[in-house]
């Protein structure tokens, strides 16, 4: 489904990605973990070219992502759901509009879009909040709107960029609950960047540890947490034990 | 980066630019037009519609009611159908606009304004404002009639009226103003006044020297047909001459009133006029004349010691700020002003003493007369005594030699007494009483009487009045110190130096091709044997727009300037409100895109060129369409200014209109096209402007 080879990205003198290789199979749930600044977010933003990599290849569903033109890239992005750490909702739109506006702009009939939107909102537990504006919601609710927005297009793959990092610990649970539910009930391929070790162990089919722009270890959760081969793995193991 | 526009936003941008330019031009020109119209209407309100009035009559404010009644009377009697309006009163002077009916708007009437309105109460003058007309200012009297004849022959000219030193050319229609103005200017160019100016102090027989100058001109054999006339105007500058003479007298008086300063320079010291010398006590003097070994100067800073004596000090070159240079010699200062004041004070004292002296002298004469009378009485008694003594002597002698010893003793005693009384006379060797009798008492009395009369004359003199007048003279002496006098003389000299005021001058009228006056200057200096004269060329008249035309021209300029400034302001507003949003978005796209190439290509930020291009396009188009014209701002400069503004706004775009990068990134991740991102995500929350307004027609959410 997703094949990344030798991916490089630098910001000036800082090397964010240093020859990353990663393969994600269709329907697989992969959790990427690693210390802050190790390149996790950059890596998944490169997948739909929200960040342009400096070199390497990315193939998504057999398509060479980096060679796409503007229009094809937009088509590809509609098939990729992206959940942001800061929710990135459109402040002036209502909850429902936030969820469906790209469907309408993509040419879908308004009524159909509205119906799909309401259905997805119900799925994340926000049906009653559809007319509210983002600033009227809690952080957890906002993130659930973000999840609904990503989910409404029935994406082939969903990329999660630390979805709970901006939330109060009290609110983290409700978001993880929704995520867990999604992982269990959909066949969508998921790449999740998170620091939530328990959650990762519970939902991931494969864990990838990154450090200093490189993949330093990967494997099934049972193995990587039981016998970590990398320093990062060992640190996360400690967190899990504690 | 500019690829961002490819999927459709460029159309929005083009529409925005077109509408921006149209709105900008309408906005700039509209406001400028409104200002223009407002002032134009105000002007019409003040001075009437074009051609409505022909003359402004200036009336003293206090007489304006009476003047209005009289003007109404004159209008009804002489100009039925007249128009009159009272306008602004300025500085105590009311202004009445008077319009003649068409049949009375004639040369005869306009040249006889004074005879019609001269008796209006409080009138202090008038100004012709006939419209349409062309005004020629400062027409030289020598050519006025010739000019008038030629101008009246021009097509579209009704007649020309003399108005003081001006000529008002009245036209048949306002459409003729430009053509007549051009024709009049062509006529004026056929004449030239060549002026020969002599410096102050030269007494010139203008007629004779003028004729000599004509000969010199003719002898030059200049190419082209010309005629030359001496038109030196005697009426010119009489008041000025009087003023200059007064100035010269004033300077000479001040010069003699100031302290006299003479320098005995050292042989090695070369002094020049204008050089500053500092003295031991800090006085600063300026050299005013060098005559061999004698150098004269005047004090320009400080005051000398008040003394009637000559003061001698050592002088040094003044190097500024109290610094002294080499010793240049001894400087003698005679404080003439103090001497004069001293002499006046002494005179006053003398007069007071004289008055006292006359009183005492009168008393002395009176005493002398009393003494004389007493003396005369004493003399008479002596005569009687002398006779009695003779008789006594004779009586004693007549009694014989054997008289008694007592008689002899008495004789000796009487003679001794007599001798004592007339002691001074006895010394002359004469007989005592004879000597006294020889005194000319009558002559002495006459002499005393003469002295008394003269003293009386002195006493009759009104010494008090003399004292008072001399005191008045003393009080009215200028209260100036030497520095003030020196600076005043310096200023007067500058004024008289020929830079400000011309001296005698000769005016030669040249008809035909103009001559180069500077080329002829040397010729005149040589032929008229005066190296100080200068030549100048002037016109015989100057065409100027009429008052209203001038005001409307100024208003037009103001309109153009206002439109230009509004175009600049509008461009800045549009760049800040609309284009800063686009620039911010492009900056975000550039930052998240592929890395910027290194080297020169990396430095060439397309945003700078886009900003500059948009700025110059908007400003230049709006400026041009609004028919703007700011002095010193040529079109290339406007293009450059627009470019600069665009670049500046592009650089500072995020400050003026930041984009929400998180919303933008979300929109990108959802697969929205760039034009959708702009219309639905970036522009709606941007600053209210044309971009925002136009976007509402395309916005779906």
Overview of the molecule:
The complex is a heterodimer of chains A (242) and B (701). With 242 residues, chain A is α/β, with parallel strands linked by helices. Chain A has a domain of 134 residues: 3-Layer(aba) Sandwich (Rossmann fold), CATH 3.40.50.300. Chain A contains nine helices and ten strands. In chain A, the strands form two sheets. In chain A, strands 6-7-8-3-9-10 form a six-stranded mixed β-sheet, with helices on both faces. In chain A, strands 2-1-4-5 form a four-stranded antiparallel β-sheet, with helices on one face. In chain A, strand 7, helix 6 and strand 8 form a beta-alpha-beta unit. In chain A, helix 5 runs parallel beside helix 6. The longest helix of chain A is centred in the C-terminal third of the chain and has 17 residues. Chain A starts with a strand and ends with a helix. The model of chain A has no long low-confidence stretch (mean pLDDT 91). Chain B is an alpha+beta fold and 701 residues long. Chain B has four domains: 186 residues, no CATH class; 79 residues, ACT domain (Alpha-Beta Plaits), CATH 3.30.70.260; 109 residues, Beta Barrel (Elongation Factor Tu (Ef-tu), domain 3); 123 residues, no CATH class. Chain B starts with 8 loop residues before the first helix and ends in a 6-residue tail after the last helix. About 1% of the residues of chain B have low confidence. Chains A and B meet through helix 2 and helix 3 of A and helix 22 and helix 23 of B.
